Model the fold of this input.
Amino acid sequence: MDIYIAIIVTLVGAASPILIAALGELVVEKAGVLNLGVEGMMLVGAIAGFAGQYYTGNPYFALLCGAFAGAATSLIFGFLTLSLSANQTATGLALTIFGTGFSALAGAPFSARPIELMRPLFPLELATHPILRVIFGYAAPVYFSFIMVFAVWYFLKKTRAGLILRAVGENDLSAHSIGYSVIGVRYAAVLFGGAMAGIAGACFPLLLTPQWAERMTAGRGWIAVALVVFASWRPFRLLAGAYLFGLVMTMELYAKAGGGPLSVIPSELWAALPYLATIVVLVLISIRRDASSNAPACLGRPFLPSN
Amino acid sequence: MPLRLQLTGITKRFPGVLANDNVTFSVKPGEIHALLGENGAGKSTLVKMIYGIMQPDAGEIAWDGEPVVVASPKAARKLGVGMVFQHFSLFEALTVLENIALGMDAKIPARELEARIRAVMSQYGLLLDPHRTVATLSVGERQRIEIVRALLLDPKLLIMDEPTSVLTPQEVEQLFTVLRTLAAQGCSILYISHKLHEIKALCDTATILRGGRLVDTCDPKQETSRSMAEKMIGAGLKDIVRQPGRSMGLPKLVVSRLSTRKAGHFDVAVDSVSLTVRAGEIFGIAGVAGNGQNALLDALSGEIISDDKDAITIDGYPLGLLDTTGRRKYGLCAVPEERNGHAAVGDFTLSDNSVLTARDRLGMVVLGLINSGAAKTYTGKVIADFAVKALGPGSTAGSLSGGNLQKYIMGREILQKPSVLVVSQPTWGVDAGAAAAIHQALVDLAAAGSAIVVISQDLDELLALCDTLAVINLGRLSGARPVGEVSVEEIGLLMGGVHGTTEARDAVSA
Done:
């Protein structure tokens, strides 16, 4: 029993940052922009969050630092791809390389200086029973990720602003001709995606390892990007996908620790599973036409109104 | 009653061009007013200024007798100007309702908007399910969305930019009914087109533009199509010149029992089509859109390869099993209906587009390398001979207007001197002057001994151009008849759906 509770709690912790970053990327892609720099923005968010916690000891301020740092990083991407119409794929990759290097540089003075982990949101007494621990045992970002799933779904499906955002991602030239600001909407989406990636990055030092380590997000940003396609741009599928990936990552940890039947499969294979699963799902989606048709039609294409 | 719209001395200059030069005309309430002119005559620019997309350099716009400045499309909509564009600004993945909501300036709750949409749809007979995704709709249905969107604003002036260029004849009739109803209720309509018979059928007044200037304002019901066309192009319309005493040669293209398989749910397959075209003959295939014309063109060009090698022969040589490249080598060239993306690659230069279809026939590829000099020379010749308005062989196909691209594509195939040429909609969306040039080129090619198949929905075009005529209906071809011996009524009957070759023959002879 306790092992299952432990697995659930671990997987929720592992899945939440991915879910937060992926929700941001989903909104960005729905606006027709492909930002592959999620990993880079997460790393910048991670170091900003770490520094915020280190200097103030206020984890909420630290998350805010992460959000601002992520948004600021995404602004570089936005300026290059939206204002200067640079290639989005190349710029996104460059942003990841930039974020990796920048966070390593900024993080160097903090090495071997531990911070305090973020405490659970609810009083500990509520989470004494194992079942209650599954519900009440997490820090605020976990609950934030749940709320954001609903918020993003509601925004995209039910609000006029969400409709305009989808329209911009679907047919930028038409949206422009009707009179919507394509670039404006896309900047807003990119900034939102950056802030979400920054929060997701800040979760790593605040929730998982209370120390600065270079590349501490360990490729989770890439999983977030893959998840968006995996979920065919639907927020609730994103939730399911993030937990599935979280489960596999938890399995990897247990397999590494040499825990019982899981160690039959080498931990390296567990580590590779999310990526294998992504490839399989992408193939399945491209076979099933109706699912892939949910992709925003203008995804990754620069907006050039003069043509 | 004051005039709904009065333009006085409107002038608009672009770098190097005077798009509108001192244009003055007016539209009365409830009037259907045609704006007529060739491609590049300045119709679109003029309309863009009325709709607030552009501002005039000089001149005055008055609305209901009051001078106004139309600063933006939003301001235009506020005045009561609605516009239906030639190219729809629709979002394929969104529903009809969402598309209309996006085009509304006011924020209306979805349920209220849906009720209003349903009311407008039933009032004008524009039936559509508001919850259907646009991607599943036909072109005519998509246009209805644009019209409903414009009508929801209770416009006092509705601008229609070449609305029928994509519609089937039935859809055109439905559209005209809607427009007449609107006009009867007092809404003015500014109708942009160069289809003269439509203007004669629909409009009360016609304003004709040429080279940015107003040439004439006339009553289209008093004019002939020919007189209006001559005003449009500013010269006597050239008749097709045929060499006298021309006789047909031996059978060149022989198609026997050619069939295709249905490719998709909405596809109409070709069903056992047989025809014979002699050297020097122009063979016309009439029919309402969506009766298998596309499949027939693909089956003839080689995009769909037949199972039977003898289904298509040229001079007795079987081509049925060959693909497009193989058939081109044997002299069969084809021009599909869709110009951009099918007949030409929009992002490629004209020169590269020439290489795509003329490489083998004109030796533009040597040992796998493109001879760009030959391609440029040939493209330059096409541009010169067919009066294509393009900067040169280096312009991209996508930068040309529809009519100019069509002239280029027709020229590219005709100058290859194919022994058989199959064309679909050769003058679709092309102005009268260019259409006459294309027709003459086809006649000249036939006179030089080629066999030509013209698939078109424009019956006037086929009657003027062809020697022999057949009708395609639900993928089956009626018997062929010499043009001089068949009446428009008989063809109309066949187009309306008297199926099968034998029945069709009976219907024609009856």
In short: The CA atoms of residues 92 and 279 of chain B lie 46 Å apart.
